[in-house]
Specification:
single chain; alpha/beta; 14 strands
């Protein structure tokens, strides 16, 4: 079993790599590799797309890295389990509106828009710990309950056109999508590698997930 964490120069992947390696050992889920090699991504058993920064820059970097076609092959054609983290989750949407309209992967029926809290005292970016509200059951959230904390750093959120794809949200001057999923794909707006035991549990669940 091989889990590929895609490296498209979208941020420091060290903490994510270490968290996935730790949970892969504990769940006996095989090897974890950080890679920009399209052949490795195409043959991986699971694919993780992290990301920090702006939606357009990350979308462009993903395509320029040469792994875009391999990602489509692994996830769409082969049905491999996929996990998007932070901007990696946002890229699953149909389009993003950060700086300019940018096409996403189209795996989730949603658009990425600026966070606009109803309470003007709330600052953007939404940064720090927030309580998850579980909307729908999902294998990657097994053992995770409403009220558990996750760590967020983001100024844009995914607005869903289909709420059956919203697995969890948080309250930040209105509902903010925290987890979205469809078929063999799931996205986490927060950083599971920085979300203590709750995040590690989700990583372990993903490594066991067989959609």
């Amino acid at each position: 079993m091989l889990t590929a964490i895609i490296d498209y120069e979208s941020g420091n992947l060290h903490s994510a790599e270490k968290a996935f390696e730790r949970m892969a050992r504990e769940t006996e889920a095989g090897a974890v590799v950080v890679t920009a090699d399209p052949d490795v991504v195409a043959r991986a058993d699971r694919v993780v797309l992290p990301g920090d920064g702006a939606f357009p820059a990350c979308a462009e970097a993903l395509r320029n890295a040469g792994v875009f076609a391999a990602l489509i092959e692994a996830v769409e054609e082969k049905g491999r389990p996929f996990l998007g983290i932070c901007v990696g989750m946002q890229l699953m949407a149909r389009k993003g509106h950060e700086y300019r309209e940018t096409e996403g992967l189209g795996w989730i029926d949603g658009e990425v828009v600026h966070i606009a809290p109803s309470d003007k005292a709330l600052k953007v970016p939404h940064m720090g710990w927030n309580d998850l509200v579980i909307d729908l059951p999902h294998p990657v959230l097994d053992g995770v309950a409403t009220g558990e904390h996750a760590y967020f750093v983001h100024s844009y959120q995914m607005q869903l056109g289909d709420l059956t794809q919203r697995i969890a949200h948080v309250e930040y001057g209105g509902d903010v999508t925290a987890v979205a999923a469809r078929d063999n794909c799931i996205g986490l707006q927060f950083h599971p590698e920085k979300s203590a035991a709750t995040g590690l549990r989700m990583i372990a669940n993903f490594l066991r997930w067989a959609p």
